[in-house]
């Protein structure tokens, strides 16, 4: 109804067909924004607005109680002299750079295993996926802490195998392996994606390669990896971004402090401590933006380099 | 948990009874390989399930036998830990925490499904000016670390006096803040035949009619997947409640668990583990009932857990 009222007079003068077309298009646009409204409001108020606000706050001294005071680049300068901040960068980078490849390697290995035998594949697929659903929960963090604590199961097992006794939770050298094991335990989600990708690889390729005398390793590098490269890329991107955001497990295992000796002081945890513990919200915003820029750069580099190693064949997406 | 173990043993058995197709020459090799695959899969299964089994079994043991006891089976099983856990913390019953969690999760599901479906319809079925730009921005939010948002969002909710209410935890769900679900639904809708809505348009239906009476019923699988994930994500969420809630009466289970951790340290490991089990029960229930939807959702859309 409103379509008729909004129709400008000038349009009526021109030929009838384009008018109908234009009117229809305008009506479509109106419907489009009607349906888009909830997301658009959310995007502007909960995403775009806060992003700009935190960009501004990153250049201020702000603690919720006083008005933000513009201090230019001071927050960023402080960051690079803050040893705890540098520690959190180190911890997070090790976690991302070691943990993500380990987790993806486990996911790919198990996907290849399940793909080679078809029996009961569905059952294993579901069972292996279960940890991905609950791995980031507080419950599992508590279990992990208990398993790896002093005199816990892992300690007993390792001592039994002749290693130095001692819990992993309290040893700054062992907390990182413990956190990476927790991440690796959740290999199920990328594994399911790898499996879906493996299903798309035509069997004839392997058969032809076997006829030509290619061994299992050769078939893996020359067929599986290139055919799977879009899926590998997707998993790598997703898991890298997720790894930057680990929070609840580190918080619970270290009691919110990032210890021992800062060995579980993940980026998110330190940001929480500065922003909400010390109410240094300008400083924390600067931290958040450094992270956003780093993640943006990593994504950009991954997309740029992907042209060299990701192969998109015709019908497999 | 018992369901898990029973299906674990049942599935391979039924499979083995199935006659193997005749493949004369390669049969022995194929059988040996299949056995290998099974053996390896079982080993991995044991590693994957061990922490969960350990958790359930430990919850039945007395506190002083939990940490250093390598055997899974409790010498004398008792539900004492569950009694302590259900009694709650600081005079607040565990049911209060569970009720808060359930309320947050159910409202999250409703909000997420409604807002994501409407948004997905706009992107998948309406040719409006600016669609490509908004779609690209929507996909871009998938890559955005939440850190850049939490501080200003907190400041705003603080100014509005909404700290210690459920509003900051729920409002985003009604505004389709989780781009994953929009993406999932858009992909699903794009696969539905366009002839359906074109026929309806010729019959004079507007977009609202088409959306409600044609699309929504057809989107059931996508709606189910979205609902389950929205429920589980809300149920497991820790950071949101940690930031916005400070009255223990309003705590959902993950925050209550943290209270347990802080207040009891080593003294009552048993109750803490029992509470951890209880907090996972709904998630595991969903997992057993809807594993197809969950795993297929991951396989097709790359949704994570």
TrEMBL record, chain A:
Matching InterPro entries: ABC_transporter_permease (IPR051393), MetI-like (IPR000515), MetI-like_sf (IPR035906)
Q: Which PROSITE patterns match?
A: ABC_TM1
Q: Name one GO cellular component term.
A: plasma membrane
- What is this protein's record name? Multiple sugar transport system permease protein
The record's keywords, sorted A to Z, are: Cell membrane, Membrane, Sugar transport, Transmembrane, Transmembrane helix, Transport
Keyword Zinc listed: no
Spans traversing the lipid bilayer:
32-59, 93-114, 126-148, 178-198, 219-238, 244-270, 282-303
Record's keyword annotation contains GTP-binding: no
Compartment(s) of residence:
Cell membrane
TrEMBL record, chain B:
List localization entries. Cell membrane
Which processes are annotated in GO (biological process)? transmembrane transport
InterPro entries assigned: MetI-like, MetI-like_sf
Q: Respond yes or no to whether keyword ATP-binding is given for this record.
A: no
The topology of this chain with respect to the membrane is:
Multi-pass membrane protein
Name the major location.
membrane
The alphabetical list of record keywords is: Cell membrane, Membrane, Sugar transport, Transmembrane, Transmembrane helix, Transport
* Family (UniProt): Belongs to the binding-protein-dependent transport system permease family.
Entry protein name: Multiple sugar transport system permease protein
């Amino acid at each position: 109804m409103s379509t008729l009222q909004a129709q400008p007079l000038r349009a009526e003068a021109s030929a009838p067909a384009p008018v109908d077309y234009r009117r229809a298009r305008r009506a479509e646009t109106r419907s489009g924004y009607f349906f888009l409204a909830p997301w658009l409001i959310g995007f502007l108020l909960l995403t775009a607005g806060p992003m700009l606000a935190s960009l501004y706050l990153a250049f201020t001294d702000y603690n919720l109680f006083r008005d933000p005071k513009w201090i230019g680049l001071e927050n960023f300068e402080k960051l690079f002299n803050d040893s705890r901040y540098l520690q959190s960068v180190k911890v997070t980078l090790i976690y991302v750079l070691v943990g993500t490849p380990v987790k993806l390697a486990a996911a790919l290995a198990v996907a290849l295993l399940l793909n080679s035998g078809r029996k009961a594949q569905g059952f294993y697929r579901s069972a292996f996926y279960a940890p991905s659903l609950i791995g980031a929960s507080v419950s599992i963090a508590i279990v992990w802490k208990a398993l790896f604590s002093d005199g816990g199961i892992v300690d007993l097992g390792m001592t039994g195998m002749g290693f130095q006794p001692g819990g992993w939770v309290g040893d700054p050298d062992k907390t990182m392996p413990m956190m990476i094991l927790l991440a690796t335990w959740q290999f199920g989600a990328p594994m399911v994606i790898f499996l879906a990708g493996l299903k798309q690889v035509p069997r004839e390729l392997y058969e032809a390669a076997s006829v030509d005398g290619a061994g299992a390793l050769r078939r893996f590098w020359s067929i599986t990896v290139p055919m799977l490269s879009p899926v590998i890329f997707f998993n790598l991107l997703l898991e890298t971004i997720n790894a930057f955001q680990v929070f609840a497990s580190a918080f619970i295992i270290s009691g919110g402090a990032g210890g021992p000796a800062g060995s579980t002081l993940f980026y998110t945890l330190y940001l929480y401590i500065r922003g909400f513990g010390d109410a240094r919200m300008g400083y924390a915003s600067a931290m958040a933006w450094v992270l956003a820029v780093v993640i943006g750069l990593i994504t950009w580099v991954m997309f740029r380099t992907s042209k060299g190693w990701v192969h998109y064949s015709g019908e497999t997406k | 948990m018992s369901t898990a173990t029973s299906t674990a043993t049942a599935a391979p058995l039924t499979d083995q009874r199935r006659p193997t197709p005749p493949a004369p020459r390669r049969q022995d090799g194929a059988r040996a390989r299949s056995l290998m695959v099974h053996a390896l899969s079982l080993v991995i299964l044991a590693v994957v399930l061990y922490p969960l089994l350990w958790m359930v079994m430990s919850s039945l043991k007395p506190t002083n036998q939990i940490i250093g006891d390598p055997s899974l089976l409790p010498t004398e099983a008792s539900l004492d830990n569950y009694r302590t856990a259900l009694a709650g913390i600081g005079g607040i019953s565990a049911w209060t925490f569970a009720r808060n969690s359930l309320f947050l999760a159910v409202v999250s599901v409703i909000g997420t499904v409604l807002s994501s479906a409407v948004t997905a319809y706009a992107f998948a079925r309406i040719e409006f000016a600016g669609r490509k730009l908004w779609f690209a921005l929507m996909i871009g939010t998938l890559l955005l670390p939440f850190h850049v948002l939490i501080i200003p969002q907190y400041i705003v909710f603080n100014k509005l006096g909404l700290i210690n209410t459920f509003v900051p935890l729920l409002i985003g769900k009604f505004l389709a803040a989780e781009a994953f679900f929009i993406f999932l639904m858009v992909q699903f809708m794009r696969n539905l035949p366009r002839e359906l809505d074109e026929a309806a348009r010729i019959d004079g239906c507007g977009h609202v009619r088409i959306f409600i009476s044609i699309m929504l019923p057809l989107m059931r699988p996508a709606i189910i997947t979205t609902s389950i994930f929205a429920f589980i994500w809300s149920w497991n969420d820790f950071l949101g409640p940690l930031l916005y809630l400070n009255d223990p009466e309003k705590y959902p289970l993950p925050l209550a668990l943290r209270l347990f951790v802080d207040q009891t340290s080593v003294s009552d490991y048993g109750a803490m583990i029992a509470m951890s089990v209880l907090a996972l029960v709904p998630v595991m229930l969903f997992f057993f009932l809807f594993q197809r939807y969950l795993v297929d959702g991951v396989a097709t859309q790359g949704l994570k857990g």
